[in-house]
Amino acid sequence: MTSSQNPMVLVVEDEALIAMDLQALLEEAGYRVLGPANSSAAALALLDNDEPDVALLDVNLGRSDVFGVANALAERKTRVIFLTGHTAQKLPPAHRHLPLVAKPYLPHVLLQAVKTALAQREPTA
Amino acid sequence: MAVWNALEQLGQTLVVAHSGEEALYKLLDGDFAVILLDVNMPGMDGYEVASFVRARKKTRHIPIVFLTALYRDDSSLLQAYSAGAVDMVFKPVDPLILRSKVSVFVELYLKQAEIQREAELRHRLQEENFRVRAEKLSAEQALRRSQEHQEAMERAEAQQRMLIEELNHRVKNMLTVVNAMARQTLSSTPEPEVFTEKFMRRIDALGRTHALLSREQWGTVQLADVARESLEHYLVEERNRVFLKGPPIALDPKTALALGIVFHELATNAIKHGALSNQQGNVEVKWSLNGDGAVKLDWNENKGPEVRPPPITGFGSRLIKLEMTHELNGEVELNYDSSGLKVVLGFPLTCFDTAQLKQGIAQ
Questions:
Q1: B2-121 topology per CATH
Q2: What is the total count of domains within chain A?
Q3: A21 vs B contacts (CB less than 8 Å)
Q4: Per-domain boundaries in chain B
Q5: pLDDT over 60 at B164, yes or no
Q6: Gyration radius of chain B over CA positions
Q7: Do B176 and A18 touch (CB under 8 A)?
Q8: Which of A12, A14, A17 to mutate to test the interface with B (most CBs of B within 10 A)?
Q9: Does B126 touch chain A (CB under 8 A)?
Q10: Do the beta carbons of residue B340 and residue B304 sit within 8 Å?
């Protein structure tokens, strides 16, 4: 079902079961999954070798947060979608304008957010 | 009468006594600027009255001017002054001289009274000042206490808001985990009865680790307790089928929850396919803590039915692997030994410190 032409989604989520579920949902919808990464360090290491089309980022990663990865992705002009149980007000001002999928998420809402983000990609991407 | 007329013009209060006794009686109350005392009186004479006046503390300071018709001879003068006179006026009285002398004492008295009033006023002002300062100090203290109280209240409210936010976040995360558990369980077991059974048992296992963590106020919990809680059903109902062996190791909530899931999946598999599926088999769970703060745990199944790989398939084995690698940054090895499933788990302790290591080694 997936091929190298299919869009690639970076998944950063530290909770194993949720990571597994996100991977399954995205792969069933025909996307390639980069990760899932369980930490910012792991995510940044993945970005050294791969160029995802969109990133799905859990905001809270244990005791740290995902904003370092979000900043690295912003520099590459990669679309970012946050996944969090918090509200947008909890995000730093620099990231507050980015799309946010609330936990607990519904599969069709999540997939729609990914589809929208991919459609908004810049033509060069 | 001549004296009265001479002094009336001074405009002061004149008190007349007609005898020494009356004079002393009138001196009992009221303050006087000067006493004009006739030396020759029936009964108590002037000298006697003067000695009483001098003996009494309240009247000792009042100047006494003797009125006398005696000649100005040295002996009478001496007697008068030694009785406490400050001056003498001779009869017949010259109104001008008397008035002039008395007015000096009146003046003196008025000055003293004024000085005393000023002193009293100053004293009162000082006391008032002290009182106001004390009131101000106590008001400031009360204000400070109330500010401290207010700050403590604000801190408590902020902490409560933070706790509610944290709780809110955890609940949403847990609902997300339950959703994921439902979807992933369903994808490996689509039959409604099997799905319901597996799903509910997995949620039940999660709930039991949660209950254990709640009892410890989400601090640390013992590895043995996590194992006992996740395997309790099999330990209790099938005694001597599962053995737990290892030193005390404190786990943080994240590690405890992940291990709870792993234990549940391993036990479910052992019941269905492994050493707990017959009457003779048993499971040995052994763990140890090595020097760099990593835990090694062995799950050894014995005397079960012959094992043919893979003993665990689908969602269960994927879940174990992901919990160990993704959640705990650890590793897992599944050996399909023909005598029984052998699983080796290794994971670092995230809340590891040297005290814990020493405790682990000591025991």
A1: Rossmann fold (3.40.50)
A2: 1
A3: 179-180, 183-184
A4: 2-121, 191-362
A5: yes
A6: 55
A7: yes
A8: A17
A9: no
A10: yes
